[in-house]
């Protein structure tokens, strides 16, 4: 049960290691991505040129993107405006309502959507619970808010368990 809920389908160092051609082969037509510590550090207000290029690469391949964040409207809206992508703020991940809403807004089936995020307790757990393909990335920054710090403690324990059981072979 723990494996089914918390083990991501893929684990990569950053969003830039995600192979778009592999996503297309999996019939992935939509990306739900977290914002803070997935795309940029939680304290970076604007997308970097590299992040903008990543979004453009997805768009060029016909892959739709929605940013789904637990952060507030001001933060998420200001970040997403220059990217011209849809977004959902105060998402309350890992609850599935926002993930289902994003999938519906993109007019896709859950089998056609991937969730990308840096947190096992919110992004991976929420995606897995809702039958979505999940990719976990290493956090962009090592610092987090208080709630996220607590989640990271639990996350580290689960990662160590997965390593001991041979479910994963990556480095933290």
From TrEMBL:
Organism of this sequence: Staphylococcus canis
Pfam families: Hydrolase (PF00702)
Protein name: YqeG family HAD IIIA-type phosphatase
InterPro entries: HAD-like_sf, HAD-SF_hydro_IIIA, HAD_sf, PGPP1/Gep4
Upper lineage: Bacteria, Bacillati, Bacillota, Bacilli, Bacillales
Signal sequence, renumbered to the chain: none
SUPFAM superfamilies: HAD-like
């Amino acid at each position: 049960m723990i494996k089914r809920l918390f083990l991501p389908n893929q684990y990569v160092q950053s969003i830039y290691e995600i192979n778009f051609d592999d996503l297309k082969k999996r019939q992935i037509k939509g990306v739900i991505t977290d914002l803070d510590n997935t795309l940029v550090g939680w304290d970076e207000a604007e997308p970097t040129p590299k992040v903008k290029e990543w979004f453009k690469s997805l768009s060029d391949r016909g892959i739709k993107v929605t940013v789904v964040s637990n952060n507030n409207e001001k933060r998420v809206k200001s970040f997403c405006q220059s990217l011209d992508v849809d977004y959902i703020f105060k998402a309350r991940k890992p609850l599935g309502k926002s993930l289902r809403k994003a999938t519906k807004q993109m007019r896709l089936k859950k089998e056609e959507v991937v969730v990308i995020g840096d947190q096992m307790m919110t992004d991976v757990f929420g995606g897995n619970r809702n039958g979505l393909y999940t990719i976990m990335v290493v956090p962009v920054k090592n610092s987090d808010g208080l709630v996220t710090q607590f989640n990271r403690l639990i996350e580290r324990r689960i990662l160590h368990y997965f390593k001991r059981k041979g479910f994963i072979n990556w480095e933290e």
